[in-house]
C-alpha cells in the first residue's frame, strides 16, 4: 500500500504529515564476572567509583556476582558502556586483579 493518501481529484495535492524519525539508541548491559582472586573490597570500590553505586548496592551486586558468576553493574548507551568496561579493565590491571568486565545488548530494551 502507498504511504500517500489517495488524491480526491487529479488536481488535488496529496499531503502527509511527516512522521518523526527519532529512535532511542540501543542499550547495553555492563557485566562483572566472578573469579577466585579479586578481593571483594576491590569489586565494591569498582562499583562505587566507576558505576556510582552506594556502598549497600555495591555490596549486594558484588555478592550476586560472587554467588551467581556474573551480574549487571549498569545499563548504558554503547559508547558509555564501552568506556565503563575500559575503565574497569584498566583499574583492575593497575591494581593487579584478574577482574573481568564485559558488555552485552540489553534484551529488555524495546
Ligand atoms: N569471588 C571473589 C572472592 O571470593 C570476589 C569477587 C566478586 C570477584 C565479584 C569478582 O566480579 C567479582 N574474593
Task: Reconstruct the topology from this structure.
Elements: E1 27-33, H1 40-49, H2 55-68, E2 70-77, H3 78-94, E3 100-105
Antiparallel strand pairs: 1-2, 1-3
Verbal overview:
- With 110 residues, this protein is of the alpha+beta class.
- Helices cover 37% and strands 19% of the residues.
- It is built from three helices and three strands.
- It has helices spanning 40-49, 55-68, 78-94; strands at residues 27-33, 70-77, 100-105.
- The protein has a three-stranded antiparallel sheet with strand order 2-1-3.
- α1 (40-49) packs across α2 (55-68).
- It is rod-shaped, with a radius of gyration of 23 Å.
- The mean pLDDT is 91.
- The protein binds L-tyrosinamide (TYC).
- L-tyrosinamide (TYC) is lined by residues 32-36, 38-40, 43, 62, 65-66, 99.
- The site of L-tyrosinamide has 13 residues, from β1, α1 and α2.
Task: Summarize this structure as a short list of keywords or feature phrases.
rod-shaped, 3 strands, three-stranded antiparallel beta sheet, 3 helices, alpha+beta, 110 residues, binds L-tyrosinamide
Which strand order do you get reading across the main beta sheet?
2-1-3
Overall morphology: rod-shaped
Distance between the termini: 26 Å
Order of SSEs: EHHEHE
Helix content: 25-40%
Overall pLDDT level: 91
Which value, in Å, is the CA radius of gyration? 23 Å
Based on helices, strands and strand pairing, what is the structural class?
alpha+beta
Sheet with the most strands, sense and barrel status: 3 strands, antiparallel
Query: Which ions and ligands are bound to the chains?
Result: L-tyrosinamide
Low-confidence stretches: none
Number of helices: 3
What is the strand tally?
3
What fraction of residues sit in β-strands? Answer: 15-25%
Amino acid at each position: 500500500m502507498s504511504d500517500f493518501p489517495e488524491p480526491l481529484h487529479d488536481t488535488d495535492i496529496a499531503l502527509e504529515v511527516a512522521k518523526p524519525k527519532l529512535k532511542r539508541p540501543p542499550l547495553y548491559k555492563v557485566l562483572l564476572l566472578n573469579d577466585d582472586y579479586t578481593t571483594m573490597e576491590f569489586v565494591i570500590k569498582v562499583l562505587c567509583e566507576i558505576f556510582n553505586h552506594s556502598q549497600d548496592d555495591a555490596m549486594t551486586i558484588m555478592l550476586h556476582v560472587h554467588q551467581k558468576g556474573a551480574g549487571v553493574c549498569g545499563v548504558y548507551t554503547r559508547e558509555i558502556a564501552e568506556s565503563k568496561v575500559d575503565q574497569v579493565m584498566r583499574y583492575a590491571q593497575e591494581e593487579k586483579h584478574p577482574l573481568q568486565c564485559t558488555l552485552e545488548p540489553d534484551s529488555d530494551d524495546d
